[in-house]
């Protein structure tokens, strides 16, 4: 049956049947390591961020790295050999399902492409493994909630890869804000000004690297020819597998913004504006974007910029001294967070009040919680990861349902909100500095979406609700019920 014409009822039957056949029930052999036992960990996917997982885990006392899994045999063999040279013997897998059958593995970490995060995490929970899953934890809103449900149902410890939550300096900064040392928070502004050059333009399907099992790489996503020069990494910039820089780098700052606001649910209203501007390539996700999450408590505004400061300056723009970070505007001052652990508090005249800088170990926190068996000991429990990831997804949904508009049409929609207009004006000036003519290459005005935070569904917008999940490619089906 053609996946494009698959009926809703047929899809549900197929999904439930596939998930039932592949669900990995909690086996009787699964035992939680004792206080003095080594925790045996496997790493799944390590051509990028997963490399830091390997490095961090091999340095932790009471932890043994026992297996690696990657669908690229060249990447897998290289890392197995590197560990072997250090005296670390690991089992090698290309199929995560085979790895999860191994009763000698207690926990896994995963840094695969985004579209695999949820299914691997859920399968691991069902197999009795604890999980460390990279950000964003999901490819869509529904997936994140299902990981939370799996973690609770199978009593698994699931940490999100937002490592800034384990730095002491960051925790001190957030407490400083929550204690209202700068007064009440008015706006939390996340910043992702990170250079993203063109990925190039192809004229037809590209060859898949011979070392890659493309069926396993594709997993839950649609099986499609490769229409970009690089299979690896550039998957971030196409919708079937990635979430753009909002979900790639920006999730860190989105998480900090939500933490600063102390909001533990999705926003009741969201609007996005942006576009893939300044070049034409095989990428689909916006390289310029701003998002408004209209919380009742305070606004959360997020900005993405992938172009440099100007055509003559390769550096990135800054806002209050930050290019990748968070600026929290309060009644009596503002705080600028410029890295995962460093930040400064200022009064409204720009006078420095206090500096923060201290480190921490996110993997060590995960291991501690595995031993205590308390998910409340986690600094970034999967629920936190779900909510912050979902804010990225709802922003992207607004954008994807939008339409290209003239600059004046966008200004007309935003003019009732001074903060929105100020953000838009700075964005326009940035694009002009990069010689982007918005009258010729128009930006996209997203759809204003209203959400019920309790049900995590949009109000009176069926198209938006359809984008809260996706049609999965059997047998790689994220189960509707875990």
Describe the structure.
The chain is α/β, with parallel strands linked by helices and 482 residues long. It has two domains: 18-164, Rossmann fold; 166-196 and 209-359 and 383-466, Dihydrodipicolinate Reductase, domain 2, CATH 3.30.360. Helix content is 33%, strand content 19%. The protein has helices at 8-22, 50-57, 73-85, 96-100, 114-126, 141-153, 168-178, 214-218, 244-248, 250-261, 362-372, 382-400, 407-414, 418-433, 462-466, and strands at residues 39-44, 63-69, 91-93, 107-110, 130-133, 158-160, 185-193, 269-275, 288-294, 299-305, 324-330, 333-337, 342-347, 352-357, 403-405, 443-445, 449-452, 457-458. Strands 7, 8, 9, 10, 11, 12, 13, 14, 15, 16, 17 and 18 form a twelve-stranded mixed β-sheet that branches. Helix 5 links the parallel strand 4 and strand 5 (130-133). The longest helix is centred in the last third of the chain and has 19 residues, at 382-400. The protein is globular. The model is unreliable at 1-30 (pLDDT under 50).
Name the CATH superfamily assignment of the largest domain. Answer: Dihydrodipicolinate Reductase, domain 2
Count all strands and give the number. Answer: 18
Question: Gap between N and C termini, in Å?
Answer: 26 Å
Count the domains. Answer: 2
Based on CA atoms alone, the radius of gyration comes out at 22 Å
Instruction: Identify low-pLDDT runs.
Output: 1-30
Categorize the overall geometry.
globular
- CATH class division of the largest domain: Alpha Beta
Helical fraction: 25-40%
> What is the second-level CATH architecture of the largest domain?
2-Layer Sandwich
| Assembly form of the protein | single chain
The average pLDDT score comes to 92
Overall structural class, as computed from helix and strand content, comes to alpha/beta
Helices, by number, come to 15
């Amino acid at each position: 049956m053609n996946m494009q014409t698959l009926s809703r009822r047929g899809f549900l039957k197929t999904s439930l049947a596939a998930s039932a056949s592949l669900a990995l029930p909690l086996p009787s052999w699964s035992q939680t390591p004792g206080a003095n036992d080594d925790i045996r960990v496997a790493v799944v996917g390590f051509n990028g961020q997963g490399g830091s997982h390997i490095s961090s885990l091999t340095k932790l006392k009471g932890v043994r790295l026992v297996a690696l899994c990657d669908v690229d045999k060249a990447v897998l063999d290289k890392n197995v050999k590197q560990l072997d040279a250090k005296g670390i013997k690991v089992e090698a897998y290309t199929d995560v399902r085979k790895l999860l059958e191994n009763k000698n593995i207690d926990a896994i970490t995963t840094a695969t492409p985004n579209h695999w995060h949820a299914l691997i995490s859920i399968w691991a929970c069902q197999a009795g493994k604890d999980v460390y899953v990279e950000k964003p934890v999901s490819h869509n809103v529904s997936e994140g909630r299902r990981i939370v449900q799996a973690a609770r149902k199978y009593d698994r410890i699931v940490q999100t890869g937002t490592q800034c939550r384990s730095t002491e300096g960051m925790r001190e900064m957030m407490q400083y804000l929550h204690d209202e040392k700068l007064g009440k928070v008015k706006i939390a502004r996340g910043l992702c000004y990170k250079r993203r050059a063109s990925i190039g333009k192809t004229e037809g399907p590209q060859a898949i690297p011979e070392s890659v099992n493309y069926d396993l790489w594709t997993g839950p996503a649609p099986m499609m020819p490769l229409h970009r020069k690089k299979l690896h990494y550039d998957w971030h910039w196409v919708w079937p597998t990635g979430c753009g820089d909002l979900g790639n780098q920006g999730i860190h700052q989105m998480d900090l913004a939500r933490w600063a606001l102390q909001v533990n649910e999705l926003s009741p209203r969201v609007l996005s504006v942006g576009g893939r501007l300044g070049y034409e390539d095989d990428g689909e996700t916006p390289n310029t974007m701003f998002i408004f999450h209209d919380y009742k408590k305070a606004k959360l505004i997020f900005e993405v910029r992938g172009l440099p400061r100007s055509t003559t300056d390769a550096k990135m723009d800054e806002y209050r001294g930050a290019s990748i970070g968070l600026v929290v505007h309060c009644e009596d001052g503002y705080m600028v967070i410029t890295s995962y652990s460093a930040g400064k508090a200022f009064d409204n005249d720009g006078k420095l009040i206090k500096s923060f800088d201290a480190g921490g170990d996110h993997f060590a926190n995960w291991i501690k919680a595995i031993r205590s068996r308390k998910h409340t000991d986690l600094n970034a429990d999967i629920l936190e990861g779900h909510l912050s990831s979902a804010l990225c997804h709802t922003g992207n949904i607004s954008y994807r349902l939008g339409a290209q508009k003239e600059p004046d049409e966008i200004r007309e929609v935003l003019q009732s909100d001074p903060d929105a207009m100020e953000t838009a004006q700075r964005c326009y000036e940035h694009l002009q500095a990069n010689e982007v003519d918005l009258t010729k290459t128009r930006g996209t005005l997203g759809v204003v979406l209203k959400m019920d935070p309790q049900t995590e569904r949009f109000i009176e917008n069926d198209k938006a609700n359809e984008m809260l999940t996706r049609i999965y490619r059997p047998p790689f089906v994220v189960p509707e019920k875990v």
